[in-house]
Amino acid sequence: MDASARPAPAIPPGLPEVDAIAALSDPLIRNLRITQCYFELSRSFAARAGGANWCTFATWASKQAGQTIRGEDLMQAFERKIDLPARVTEPFRSLWRKVLRAGLHNPESPLGRLAREIRSPLDAFEQASDAVARGNRKVFEEIGREFARFLAAIAGDAAGLPERVAGFCEGLRPGDPPDGQAYLRRAFTRYGQALAEPDESRRAQLMYLANVEIGFHEQTRLQPEIQEALEAPLRQARDFKRRLLGVATRALERHAMQLARAVITEKLMTLTLPGPVVLRLGRDLDAPPAAVLEKIALPELGEMLARFKGPSGAEDWADLDERMGFIARLFRCFHDRPELFEPPFTPLQVQQVRRGSLPDGSL
Fold first, then answer.
1. Distance between CA 80 and CA 258 in Å, rounded?
2. Residue 242 — pLDDT band, cuts 50, 70, 90?
3. For residue 247, how far is the Cα from the chain centroid?
4. How far apart are CA 254 and CA 247, in angstroms?
5. Which of 75-79, 99-103, 344-348 has the highest mean pLDDT?
6. How many CA atoms lie within 13 A of 155 on its CB side?
7. E strands, the chain, in order
């Protein structure tokens, strides 16, 4: 993305807003607020640096996660199974949205507490939803917060920028993830260097390397939640079998578990970007690198990418190295796509979410 295509400058979300969003108890509203906040952080930084930053991709990953958190994966699976027209299925979608508004996934609501007491073969969807929601919050309350803090640190003119970036990085913990923040410290240092870099190619490579380093930190910390979400159908199958041992429901149990595993795996391994561009994470990414990143000249970037050699598709999304291979390729191919800066929600939906309401329409 060249300077002329950069988003217009905007006031980024501050630490109080980020902390307030992370503290929300309703996982549905929290996810929508997180997605919108990532978008605002992304645009604010891109107005200064150009090109996609980590928050740019986090916007659409969080939006995708929202489908699993809201249980829309199950609804879509049933629609494909029964193959009915939209006019027939739309009333069911509306009913599902009403149930969600009543607090189905909110652990503090009466309906949410009741739902957790009633067990069924489809509990795997609830467990996957919970794992994805916890991961969504876990990443945002750390990395989203650091982005807000970084944007506050670099605000103003270029005078003293290196010192302000260094001061920001001093607040990051040493050591590797999941406990240390050494990769975040390197990444934000490179972001600071990119802000002062006049050469477009080198600036893009600094941004790309920073994105991959944050991605590695994020994915390392998310490993437990990803593993939990993918294994939810298997754990649920064991629990359900113990409860119904000797009862003639094994065929139903088996069918439900197969459906749950297939849908959860498919949705966790799908990413929809504006366009729309639907990426299957288990397949090689059939897209060329951004022109500005076609040739890698930055030694540190070459070393980082060498860690994730192999196919760009991740057959096993629970494998960190396979996952990072896909993510690194994704960041490289979509670095300069202006459509990634499109708003994830309509202005009306943003207003409704800020009021704590679950909006109508596609989310």
1. 15
2. very low
3. 41
4. 13
5. 344-348
6. 15
7. 270-273, 277-280
Sign of CA dihedral 133, 139, 145, 151: negative
Higher pLDDT, 32 or 10: 32
The mean pLDDT value for 113-120 works out to 58
In this prediction, residues 67-79 reach a mean pLDDT of 72
Under 8 Å CB-to-CB from 249, ≥6 apart: which residues?
none
Average pLDDT, the chain: 82
Q: How many helices (H) and strands (E) does the chain have?
A: 15, 2
CA 92 to chain centre: 27
pLDDT of 319 > 70? The answer is: yes
Give me the pLDDT at residue 276, please. 84
Nearest to 289 by CA among 247, 335, 325: 335
pTM over 0.70? The answer is: yes
**Burial class (CB within 10 angstroms; exposed 0-12, middle 13-18, buried 19+) of 322:** buried
- For 252, 329, 332, 355, the CA distances from 313, given in Å and listed in that order, are 33, 9, 14, 39
Q: Give yes or no for a contact between 53 and 211, defined as CB atoms under 8 angstroms apart.
A: yes
**Of 22, 8, 49, 20, whose CA–CA distance to 151 is shortest?**
49
